[in-house]
Structure formats: structure tokens, C-alpha cells
Amino acid sequence: MAKSKYEYVKEFETDDKMLRNVYVLVRIDGKGFHKFSAAHDFAKPNDVRGINLMNHAARCVMHELDDILIAFGESDEYSFLFRKSTDLYQRRESKIVSTVVSLFTSAYVYYWNDYFTDLKRPLYPPVFDGRAVLYPSEVEVKDYFAWRQADTHINNLFNTSFWALVEEGGLSPKAAEARLCGTDSKEKNEMLFTEFNTNYSKLPAMYRKGSVLLREQIPKDADKDAIIPTLPETLPGSKSAKVVPVPEATTTTTTKTTTTTTTLQQSGPDPISEPVSEATSGQSTPIIVNDPVALVVQEADMQEESKESRSNEGKKRSIDASEATEQDVAKGPTGNKNASEFKRMKKGVVIDHIDIIGEKFWTGRGAYIIAPEKKKKLRS
Amino acid sequence: MAKSKYEYVKEFETDDKMLRNVYVLVRIDGKGFHKFSAAHDFAKPNDVRGINLMNHAARCVMHELDDILIAFGESDEYSFLFRKSTDLYQRRESKIVSTVVSLFTSAYVYYWNDYFTDLKRPLYPPVFDGRAVLYPSEVEVKDYFAWRQADTHINNLFNTSFWALVEEGGLSPKAAEARLCGTDSKEKNEMLFTEFNTNYSKLPAMYRKGSVLLREQIPKDADKDAIIPTLPETLPGSKSAKVVPVPEATTTTTTKTTTTTTTLQQSGPDPISEPVSEATSGQSTPIIVNDPVALVVQEADMQEESKESRSNEGKKRSIDASEATEQDVAKGPTGNKNASEFKRMKKGVVIDHIDIIGEKFWTGRGAYIIAPEKKKKLRS
Amino acid sequence: MAKSKYEYVKEFETDDKMLRNVYVLVRIDGKGFHKFSAAHDFAKPNDVRGINLMNHAARCVMHELDDILIAFGESDEYSFLFRKSTDLYQRRESKIVSTVVSLFTSAYVYYWNDYFTDLKRPLYPPVFDGRAVLYPSEVEVKDYFAWRQADTHINNLFNTSFWALVEEGGLSPKAAEARLCGTDSKEKNEMLFTEFNTNYSKLPAMYRKGSVLLREQIPKDADKDAIIPTLPETLPGSKSAKVVPVPEATTTTTTKTTTTTTTLQQSGPDPISEPVSEATSGQSTPIIVNDPVALVVQEADMQEESKESRSNEGKKRSIDASEATEQDVAKGPTGNKNASEFKRMKKGVVIDHIDIIGEKFWTGRGAYIIAPEKKKKLRS
Amino acid sequence: MAKSKYEYVKEFETDDKMLRNVYVLVRIDGKGFHKFSAAHDFAKPNDVRGINLMNHAARCVMHELDDILIAFGESDEYSFLFRKSTDLYQRRESKIVSTVVSLFTSAYVYYWNDYFTDLKRPLYPPVFDGRAVLYPSEVEVKDYFAWRQADTHINNLFNTSFWALVEEGGLSPKAAEARLCGTDSKEKNEMLFTEFNTNYSKLPAMYRKGSVLLREQIPKDADKDAIIPTLPETLPGSKSAKVVPVPEATTTTTTKTTTTTTTLQQSGPDPISEPVSEATSGQSTPIIVNDPVALVVQEADMQEESKESRSNEGKKRSIDASEATEQDVAKGPTGNKNASEFKRMKKGVVIDHIDIIGEKFWTGRGAYIIAPEKKKKLRS
């Protein structure tokens, strides 16, 4: 047969299966997003629409790929951690990386108009790239996320200071940069407080700490509204109903939240150089997640001390209406679940903006991520 | 500084630079497109909207990445060939593969509504995956594309026969499959002609031969309309004009073309087992490319004998208004070219549906692809 | 300069650094050793000279490369386990594998005549190949060595039965193979006992269990004779003394030892299918290690029950006169240590033939192998 | 079966097959040979025994592995080029690299005493490491060998000058190095001539140009003495004759040869910066190959102009008594050929010391190396 004459070219394909029984971390990054955010007038230093869109796209990835344990996003990047024992695509690197990047990109463009409601689609197609990194032990996994969140802290404090100097202080970008050159975190904090009446530690945690996606138990009495409508199964399904309804945006909520800066109680330690103490100094304030598609309302929790106990109190939060049962893993993406079945669902994707630097997270809500997997998975 | 404490995790990243001075082939594939095409009522066996959208997305990739020499698409897959000397992202595999996949996916969702005009966006975000394969020599490159086009021939002939039996012949899918089991190409051709009055060789070449994207000279007197508006530079640029105009669709043209099947002149040899002779038997018929965004009209060329000479006759075709000069490569994606500058442009991305099996193509229009690169590139 | 004109070819070299913080296992195998052993009239089923030469070569490897924690040898193969944190040659795979293979091969040829005393050198140069495998966790490391030792058990029981049938029973090889076909371990054990008066479990442990090289404490009062003279530092050092003295061989001892098979006390369970129970059934008998170069005398330990306590009793065994201090690691191969310094030495390479299947070993003498490494090594 | 319980650890092995249809270059390097050569009182700047031993070991490698087209050696390194289509060990990188390194090392120790006749074996086992590099095209292959030979030129000229200053000039090593610092090739040439009466271009070509191993036709009337006795087949074969005879060494010949330096005719251009012109300036002088094992005498060819035609003149040279027929490739290492069969043999391994910088070699004796391989090999 003629086909076989050429088919030898397949033999040039190489096997790129990744080492077994190590964590697989896929990180995606926006390409040329400095230009992209400028072209679309992203608010500075943070555009809540852009961040929420990133988070929505990441949730889609996590919804589709059940072996992702946790994801963390900041700026134009997102990191996804797969469990050690994942056998997704037989651990083929190109397949996994390209699927994550494609899914994320697809969702970003797909949901664009739900967040940027005045623009049908971006001015041009945005692009992300990605790569996989293997981490053998829990130590590196913790340190990886600490590395990214430390980066968030540093960048956001700099950007907040920079744009305060430029937009409120009237400095040129060059002058602002010169002003900040050589300053440490404490000095930037003080400058923001004394010159711009801004208590940095009271700014939305989403800006200061990035976004963490976790797989957690969803309270049985959660509102149906809490369901994030993701891929096909949450759509009405009838082919006649081909127009996807775009819920009204509620971005104004955010603005309110981001301006709830109050008097600085204490200038506090540098959140980066003293990440552990920050957690106890209680300056982190979760913001309202205004997710127009999800119709999710996460109550602003102003009482910092109750932050860690929220999950036990059944408060609303962003959740993903999938249950991560073993069967689902086998079944793959998107069975046909109905929103009305929500009551029986157990686990979903939850978004929060908390400290993942330090042991507190990993012994608490993050414990399931680094828990040993069953031996039988190894000796399959 | 706190950051450095964690930064060691970067050292777990591995170097995935691909071997130098070999062709890099990136192939992307739709994930679950059987389901995707069913969910969106794609026409069987070929949906011209879907194919055109694929082609448009591929053109975006080729527009952005100047080192791609040729691309070939069929069904839900597309192959992109980078020149041997490409140093894109220092030849890092993950970076190249993920960028191609992301860009393709992004464009597919972005331009969806321009082709599927009755649906704002797909029912759910489509996903592609990708991989890179290295080919050291011209022999393998030719055979690779022959392999893919042979696949197109085989699949399309089968699908055309299958759906004729099902949709026109009233057979069940199972019965249709049984009927076709064990038949060769000639038998399928004859069945289509005698039972369904279909001369397979007169069906649109885009269906039978897939789509080939080439970098070719664009005639100086080409209509301004021939410019394919791709990424930012072709947009008006004013931030106030944020709504992208969607040109009126002209999909009806296609339907007309696809029905221009006429009397079977000769049943002819199996196009796969005799790929060379097919080129001379002249049964290939280019179809009208109805590309609503591009506003491109490619005249149906019914005279098969003139097929190879078209490029010298200045006929309109799909072109991409970029010139692939050395400067552009350095400049990277998307400078600020104006459509009015088109006259001085020399090269663009041209789409056609021709035989790439056999030497004829590679000594003709494809000669630049396998031409030796300058030695200095090697010894850089 | 002219040189630089060609030096670009170096850029085709690829980075083959192995993932950090995982165990590196290098296994070497003899090439064509079936033929090699036949050409040199190796005794069947085991040639003590050949095994001792393998063990000697392995000790040389372990002596030179301090990051090797444990080695295991059987037949014509040897496995070397590097600690997770090794940074030998920056973990470059080719460098590590080729060095281990070269060192082993070199020592095998170098010490040949010390074991095969009637032949100056082999009839032709023997060859080994090698490969590296990464193991992320202690579970796999244990299972890897269990896998190799189970292989030893199975092969040696088969070979012992086979050669008994051929050499003592007078069967043709073909008939012997047919006779053994389909038999399990228990049946082979019984056949050996009833037909050939051989209690398999009393055969030398070196044959049944392979050889384990460990880094262990050497008693301070150990005889100077216990030092294994390995690479340059143990040589007199004076360049005039260029002739390496070859100690008188004591291979006759072995023959005696290998014939000390006595009455079968219990046929016992299959040592492979019941590896744990075997350890308690006490059928393992260490053999005299007759190592002519090493001048080592390891007392035959006939009392199986005292096997595990030997190390505390100061009995002589094969040891390697190096101390694996941190300085040594930094200094690299072969400083200039004097045999007279032996008294202050702490650790050396010890050889034994014990069960490494089962937890007993790993919680006892092997505990240091899987002990967690200090965190600072990770975050270097 | 118990075995399978552990066998999963095999799945951690990775596929390291190298890209097809590209040249595979394996380069081995001595480890710590500065120390090794000092410990064994190697003559400076070149020790003919050491070089001949290297060459002998390399010939063994080339004898065993028929897919090696050419090898080049200098100092303590050797490069082996495999043909593009080699399928040795399915192109597994570790297997190929480790086999080459092991075979080379084995032969180096094995034949040691034939070259270093006053020392039964080295003072300690020597070690080599190795790596593979892929080269897609002929251009890189030529440039690779040019790179290595340019390195030989530069190093040997420096070393010759350095040791002349130290051993004849009485300078300290430090002073000699200072004296040479910043000098170019021409200055070193002049210094050697005026101060040490040494015409560098008349020194043995083996020192100045390294050693090239080629597969070439062996004249039918070649002396039986010309056969290099390598691996088992050339041994008497009878197991009783287990002592390998060591032919009388003729190393004194070398000394004579190396002192045949005569009056400098022309200082000439720098052989490195002007590699092409050197070939025509005729300063290369092949040396007598005194190979005690091979009993080969290659006549010194003082007439430079006849250098290229020697192969047609039936002069004696080092040859390897193997024929590289297709059957041999399949049969693998070492069938049982008899020395008496030599007359019918066609091809062997020839050693020479010629320019491989420049096109002259590659269009002449080296043409077979870069000749295109048959297409069918590709489309296997």
C-alpha cells in the first residue's frame, strides 16, 4: 500500500515521556503581554478584568485536567501542578504542555467578552507559551510556589509604588523608576502610606498574593449560583440554543473593594523578607471576586482573623461544579453533568488569595497536595 | 534577599534545545474534534467553514513566525515546517511547540464567528495539542508531506464514499462501513460515479488534497482587497475603534463550487497508489476560497491544464500582506505596516490545494523550501 | 583566529544533565559474556574467579566515586546507586555513565591476571555497556534492588539445576531445559536435593544472593591486611617500583567452600515468591571471599543466626581503606593516603551477600542509603 | 510471579534513541591524563608509545563497530564518526557511547604491555569518558574534524615550543609559559628553528596532525605481516594456548624517526591560520609507525608530493584484517576469520597522518565518508 512507503517518517518522532513519580509543573506565560495590556488599556498596576479572565481560563484548565492539584497565577503567568502519579497522555511532555497552553489560550479568548464587555474580542489573538518542569519532592514543590508568590509580592509592591508616583504623583516613568531604585520593601510601604495615603497591606489580596486554585470540598448547601459554568456540560446542551448568554458584568464591586484602604495600623515588616510573620500580622484582605460569568459572589472578609476558618463556615466562594472522583479521571473531560445535580457534588475548584509561602498552608489546606500517594499507584 | 532562597527551583528546568541545522516540523491536532464537529453540526464529509477557519488560523501562525517555510492542513490537523537554520527561541522545543499551538488555538477561537456567523463563539473552547519532529534532510521533508497528503486522499475518499452511502444512499453507518470494507480506491471511485453520479476527481481540490500554505511572490498589481487582515498592524490602530468589523460572509459561494461535479471523464488510477500519474491526469480542481475576513476571491480555475501556470498570470489568490525580509525576522511579530504600503511588498502567504506528493512540486513552487541555505548561517 | 571558524560545531552538543534530587542508578552489563565465559572456560553455573573479579572491579568504581551509596552485582552485571544530591560532573548523563563503564572495564582487565592466574590477559578485550536510570523515591530504590536480587535467585536456581542435570545427570542441554520447563522454585529445590544431594539453600550466598557493596564503618582495630589495595594511593608511589606485585592466588579455598553442602534440613519455601520468610528461615550461607589482591580473609560464617550481628563483632571482611569524608568528595579521586593511616579511617567499602529483598535490610544496614539528605544540599 | 511485582521499576528507563539519518560522532577523552602521563613518565611533548597505544585501541573500536567511517585521534582523545544510517543498538545513545568507551578502555589496558614493555600493567587503571554529538550534514562533519586537527596543530606547536624551552633551553615551566604568551604560530616556528635548530614542519606528522583511521582498500598482495592482530579471530584459537605472545618491541625505531629533523627550508605560513596553503607547501612528513603488536612497518614517505598516491602503490601500512561486508555488520563483533583468508579481503582499517582540514581530503580519500547513502536505507 502506498501509504506505508512514506510512513517511515513517523520513526523520526522521539519519545518524550517524562520521568515517573515526580511532580509535573506546567507554567504558562503570556507572550508580549506588556504590549497586549497597553493595547487594551489595562488598568495599572492591576486590571481586575484581566486577572479575573486569567483565573477563569486557569479554572477551565483545572476543570478539564483532573490530575492538577493546585494552580497559582500572577500577572500574565499561571502554574499548574500535576500529581506525581499522573499518567495523562502517558506523561508525554509535548502533549501535556501543548494541551495546557492550548486550553488556557482557548478559554482566554473564549471568555474575553465576559470580562471586557465593551470589546467583542481582543484587538488581536493573544498568545501564551509554556514549559514543564519536574519536581521530585515536596520541598521543591513548596519552594516553587513560594518562589512565584515572592515574585508576586515584589513585583506588585514595585508596580503599586511606581504607578502611584506616575499617576498620582505626576512623575515621569523615568523619574518614578529613579525614585524607587535601591529602595527596599519597607521604604516602598512607607512611601505609599505617607505620600499616597495607601496602606499597602490593605490592598486586595488578589493583587498582593496572586490567585490560588485549590480542589476542595464544596458545602452541600452552597448556592446553585456558585457553580462556574465551564465546558459543555454546563451549557443547556440543546443545539438550538447556540448563543451563549453573557451575564451582566459586576466589575464596579471591585472598584469599591480596592478603595477600602484605611488607616495604616502598622507599617509592618517587609512581606517578602519576612513572609511568615506577615501571615500573623493580619494585613491581608481578600477581595471580592467579581466573576461575571460565574455569577459568584465571594463576600469580602474584612475580619482578617477569621480568614483561615472561612472554609468551615460555608461562606460562598468560587467553586467549580465538578466532582473529582476516580471515575471522572478515567472518563476524561466533560461528561454530561447537570447543574441540578450539584447537591451531591463533593469537590470542586476553589479560588482564594492566601499565603502559600510558609508551612502553614501546606500543613493546612494544602496538605492534600503533598500527601503521599498510595503505593499501588507506583507499582501499577 | 528572600527571593534567592527559593530561586534554586529554577535549576530543575531542563534545556530542551533541539538539534541545529535540521528541519523542525510542528504538527498540531484537534483534541476530541470528532465530538467538537458533531456538537457544531459540521457538514459531512467536509465543512467548508471549518476548513477555512483552520486555514485562517494557520495563516496567522505563518504570518507571525517567519521561519515557517510551508504549512499543510487537512481535517483537524496542521503541519508547519521551520527552516533548518531557525533560531527561534534558541530552538527550545517547548517554547516553539507551545507558541505554535497557542497561536493557532487563539486564532481559531478569535476568528470563529467570521466563519460560523450564526454562533458568537463555539459551544465550548476547542483545544489542540502539538509536537515537534526533526527531519535532517530534504528526502524526509518531501516524504513527510507526501505522507500527510496521502492520508488526506485516503481519508477523504473513504469519508466521501461513506457519507454518500449514508446520506444519499440511506444506509446505516454500520452498513456503509461494511459496504466499504476491503474496497480499494478505484472501487470507491467507481461506486461514487455509478451510484451517486459523483466524479470524485472533480470534487474541490481543497477536500481531496488539503491546503498548502506557501511563501510566494505577490504580484505588484494585486488588489488591495487581497490583503488578509491579520494581527494588529492591519487594524485601524486607534484605540477608540475597539470593535472589530466582521465582513459579510460569502459562504454561499462555496456551496456552488462544491456542486460543480460533472461527468466522469475517466475513472483514473488510484490517486494514492499512483500519486505521480495523478498530477498529469489533471483531475484536480481548485475551489473558490471563501474567506469572509480576508475578502479574498480566488477565481475557480476550471481549466486544469493551466493550474501550474497560474502564479505567473497574476490571478487573485489568498495572500498575506507581509514581506518576509530579513529585517522583519529581526523585528519579530507585527510592526506597523499600512495596507497602503502593499504595492512595495514582495512576498506573502499564499494558499493553494495542489499535489505535494511527487517531485513536480519540489522542483517547482516548492523549490525554495529545500534549497540549500547559505553556509554562513551554519557557521554563525 | 582560525580555530573559531570551526568551533561552532561545539554548539551541536546537547545538554544532558539529569534531573536533580533523584537517585541515579547506573547499571553496566557485559557484552557477549556468554561467549566470553565459554572462551575462558568459566566454571558452571558459577565461576568464583569471575565473580570475584567483577566484585573487585565494582569496588574500584565505588572507591573512586564517593557519591555511590551501594552497589549490587550478579552474573555479568553490576548496579551502582548514586545519592540524590550528587553533583558529579554536574549530573551529565553521558559523562557519568561512560566514566562508570570505563572505570569498571579498566579494572576488570587490569586485575584479570590476579584472579585468572594462568592467563596473563583475557583472550580478547572484554566489553561492558551501561545506562542510567533515575529513581525519585526510596520505594523504587528498594524495589529496584529487590528486582535484581530476585533475578539472581531465579537465574541461579535455574542454572544450578540445569548444570546439575547436564554435568552430573548426563543430560543433553536440550533435555535438561525440557526437564526444567514449567517447574517452579520448589520443584527445582526438591530435584536438586533428591537427585543430586544438593541443599540449594546451603550453597554459597554469593551465588544465590549476588554481591552487595556497602559503605560501612570499619572497626578501628581491623588488620592492616584488610585494606584493599586499590588505585594509586595504595601503591608504594615511587616511580621506580613500576612492577605491580601479584599476590599468590588462593583460589583453592573457594573450591573447598563451595563443596560444604550438607544435608537438607528443610526444603523451605521458594526464596523468590516468599522473600521475606526466607530471611528468617536462615538458609543463607556466606562464602569465603578469596580475593588474592585484597589479601582479605573473610571468615566463613557457618552459623546463619549470627549473620546480622557480625558487623558488631569485629570480624574481618573485605573493606576499602578510604574514608568517605566530605573533604574526600571535594578532592576527587585518589589523594595520597598512606596505609599506615588506616587506624584513623572511619568508613570503607564492605562486601557481603545478604538479602536486600524486604524491609529488614533497609531499616538495618541499608538505612543510611535511604535516609533523608540535609535540606541545605537541596537549596544550594 | 514474584518477579513482576518489582519489574515496574524498568518503566523508569527512558528511551534515548538518537535522531535518525544524522551522523553520530562519539568522542572519548582520557580522565586525568595529565596526572596519568606524569605518573608513567610519558616523553614530552609526545610519547610515541602512548600515541601508538591510543591508535591501537581506536583500531580495535573501529574493527568491532563496522558503522564507524573514520576516526581521528590526538593527545588523549579520539573521535569516531558513525555513518548516518547506522542502526547500531537502535541508535540508543547510552548503549553506543558506553560500548565505544568500554571497548577503547579495555583495549588500552589490554595492549598496554605491548607498548610499555617494561611495565606489566599501568600503575593504576586508566579511565576515559565519552559523549555523542549529532551532526546533520557533511559541512559540520568536515568542520568537526578540522576543528580537532586545528586543535592538534595549536597544541602541538605550543607543547613543542614549551618543552624545547624547558628541556633544552633550561627555562622553568613558568618562564617558558611567559615566553610563549602572546606569540603566534609563525613566531613559535621561528623560535624553534633559530634557537633549537628544529624545523617544526619536519617533525613527525603523527605529532603535528594527529592520527586518522580510514576504511580503505587493502592491496591484494599485501604482506600477511600487515595484518593487525586484534580480537579473538586472529588468535590461534586453541584454548590451550592461553598465553598471548607479546612481540618484541621496536620502539627504538621511533626515536630515530623523531630525530630526523633537518634544515628548515622555509619557515612557512602558520599551518593553522592557513590550513589550505599548508597542504601545498609540502611540509608534512609521515612518520614510521612502529607498532610492535601489529608488526606493521609503514615506510616513511619523504616525498611529500607523492603522499596522495601512496594508496595505489601498494606500500605497506597499518591495516586491519577485516572486510566490511554487509554480512559482517549483521554478524556483529568477531566471527571466526582466519589469518590465512587475508588474500580475499578487500577492506581494512588504515592509519595515516594527513591533512583533514580543507577540501582536498574530502574530495579524495575521504570522499566515501560524505558520499550520499542509498535512499532505500532511509525508507527502510
From TrEMBL, chains A, B, C, D:
Keywords from the named record: GTP-binding, Magnesium, Metal-binding, Nucleotide-binding, Nucleotidyltransferase, Transferase, tRNA processing
Region feature Disordered, mapped onto this chain: 230-285, 300-340
GO molecular function: GTP binding; magnesium ion binding; tRNA guanylyltransferase activity
Comp. bias intervals (Basic and acidic residues): 304-320
Residue intervals of the Thg1 C-terminal domain: 140-242
EC number: 2.7.7.79
Composition skew (Low complexity), residue ranges: 250-263
Cofactors required: Mg(2+)
Gene3D superfamilies: 3.30.70.3000
Residue ranges occupied by any tRNAHis guanylyltransferase catalytic domain in the UniProt entry: 6-136
Enzyme superclass (EC): transferase
GO biological process terms held by the UniProt record: tRNA modification
A Pfam family: Thg1
Assigned protein family: Belongs to the tRNA(His) guanylyltransferase family.
Protein's name according to its UniProt entry: tRNA(His) guanylyltransferase
Species this protein is from: Linnemannia exigua
Taxonomic classification: Eukaryota, Fungi, Fungi incertae sedis, Mucoromycota, Mortierellomycotina
